[in-house]
Amino acid sequence: MKNILIIGGSYFAGRILVEELINKKEYNIHVFNRGNAPLKKKLVELTGNRENAEDIKNKIPDLNWDVLIDFCGYNPDHISKMIHLLPGTLKHYIFISTTTIYENVLDFPVSEDAPKLTAVQPELGQYADYGYNKWLAECRLKEECTKKGIEFTCLRPSIVYGEYNYAPRESMLFDFIRDKKPLVVPDPGLALFSFVYVVDLAHIIIKSFLNKNMFNQGLNVASEEFISYPKLYDALKTVSGKDFETIKMKIEAINRKKIQMPFPPDIHLAYSGKKLQDILEFKFTPFVDGMKNTYNYYQMVQKVKQQKK
Q1: DSSP 194
Q2: What separation in angstroms does the CA of 239 have from each of 134, 233, 235, 275?
Q3: How far apart are CA 189 and CA 1, in angstroms?
C-alpha cells in the first residue's frame, strides 16, 4: 500500500479527494489538519496545526510517505516547515497552488511560461498577498525539494467549482434563482473565465501520484472551455430548468453600485490547461455537466436545511 498524507483535506477539494481515495485499496490515507471538520471516514485523522512545529514532528507518524498533497500551504514558511519537520521520508510533494500567481498579461489564455507576480497586489484588499505568497511558496518548494531529492509537482487550479464549495460563487447564483431574483449580466459581457470541476481536480491529483511525467513541474489546471457571463447563465438555465430573469447592466454601474458578482465582470481569468491535459491524457468534464452535478448537490443541501426547520 502507498502511504498518502493530505495536509488540509476537510473542505471542498480536499474532501472530494478523500472521497475519491477511500475506496481504493492501494492507499493508506492520513489527513493532517486542525480537526474543525472531522471526516469520519476510512482513514487516519491527525489533529494538529501546521503552524506549530511540534504538531508536525509529534502528531504525524514516522512513515515512508509516498505522496504528500498540500492543500493549505499559503507561504514559503509553510513549505519549509513541512519538508524539514515531516517525520519519515517523502517521495513526492504535490502542492496545490493557484493561477493567481501570474501577472496581468494581454495574451490569453495564460500559459505556464507567463510572467509571475513580483509583488503583492494592494488592489485586491485582504487578498493582496495571496497570489504572490503562493508563487513564493512554489519557489521555496522547488528549492527545498531539489536539496532533499524529493520530487515535486505544483498544480495551479483556475476557478474551482462543485460540491462542498464554501466560497459564495455558484451557490450565490443558485440562491438568486431559488428566490426568483434577476441575475445581472455585465454589459459588455466579454470577460472570459476558466473553470475546473472539483472532481476533475481530484482525479488529476490522483493521476499525478508518483507520475514521472509530472515531476518538477508547475502546471495549470483549467478546462479548455472559456465561460462568459452569458454562457454561464445559459448553463444555469439548462441545469436548473428555470427561465430566470436577467438584467443587463453597464460594468461602470456594477462597480459604482458595488453589486456583488461571483466573478470579476471586466477581467479575463482565462488559462491554458493544455500542457497538463496532454501529459495526463485527461478529458475535463463539460462545464454544463459539472454544473448540473453542482446544482443537484445544492438542491440536496437545501432540502436537508428545510427538513431541519
Answers
A1: E
A2: 34, 10, 6, 30
A3: 50
- Distance CA(195)–CA(222), nearest Å, equals 6
Burial of 239 from C-beta contacts in 10 A (0-12 / 13-18 / 19+):
buried
CATH number for position 99: 3.40.50.720
Residue 251 located in a structural domain = yes
- Phi/psi for 110 (5° steps) reads -80, 125
- Bridge partners of 29, per DSSP, are 4
Domain for residue 308, yes or no? no
Which residues, other chains included, contact 119 with Cβ-Cβ below 8 Å and sequence gap of 6+? Answer: 132
How far apart CA 50 and CA 257 sit, in angstroms, is: 41
Per-residue pLDDT of 35-90, as tens digits, reads 888 887 789 999 999 999 999 999 999 999 999 999 999 999 999 999 999 999 99
Residues whose CB falls within 8 Å of the CB of residue 120, separated by 6 or more in sequence, listed in order = 128, 129, 132
Q: How many domains does the chain have?
A: 1
Cell numbers placing 220: 495549470
pTM: 0.96
Here the cell at position 200 is 476533475
Cα angle 134, 135, 136; round to 5 = 90
Helices (H), the chain: 12-21, 53-59, 76-85, 130-148, 170-178, 198-208, 229-240, 251-256, 274-280, 287-308
Q: Residue 244's CB: how many other CB atoms inside 10 A?
A: 17
Cα dist from 240 to 4, 59, 131, 300, whole Å = 38, 45, 34, 13
The three three-digit cell numbers of residue 92, written as one number = 513526492
- Which range of residues forms the domain containing residue 49? 2-301
